[in-house]
Amino acid sequence: MSASAREAIVAPPDNPFPYGRRYVERTVPNGSITFEQAPLTLEDVLHPQEGDQVTHSNLHQHICVYLYTVLRRRLAGVTGAVVLYDVRIAWDDLALKAHRPDLAAIFGVREHKNWSAFDVAAEGVRPTVLIEITSPETRGIDLTVKFDEYDLAGVEFYYQ
Length: 160
What we know:
Elements: H1 3-6, E1 20-27, E2 33-39, H2 42-46, E3 53-54, H3 58-74, E4 82-85, E5 88-90, E6 103-106, E7 117-119, H4 120-123, E8 127-131, H5 139-152, E9 157-159
Parallel strand pairs: 5-7, 8-9
Antiparallel strand pairs: 1-2, 1-3, 4-6, 6-8
């Protein structure tokens, strides 16, 4: 990722989680385990872990739901076609870290599942179309880094 794309936006004091949060396990002095919220970084948004909660605006969600609905309806009669919304994609190339695009259209899926993460190696197919709804905070990585990484992953069409 370029230095300019990796620059973190400093969170205002009233918002310690500008990109979102994840729960991190901590062992306290008495030996018990607790979970604390940790802020996500721009790198975490680029390569999320399962369970990360990325912050999205209301407009972002409306656009995603609209596009998800349109894609689902358009592909409803296509055997093996799946549209995923905000699902983590684990690539079959171990050199590539996972991504979580806003929308993914995947063709040739043998069995529809309730995925929280789509494992390309296990499923035997990769997304054909990925869509990101850009925001000012993540636009740099959406237009540059993700474009390059999705190309390396063999994604045919990437829209942002």
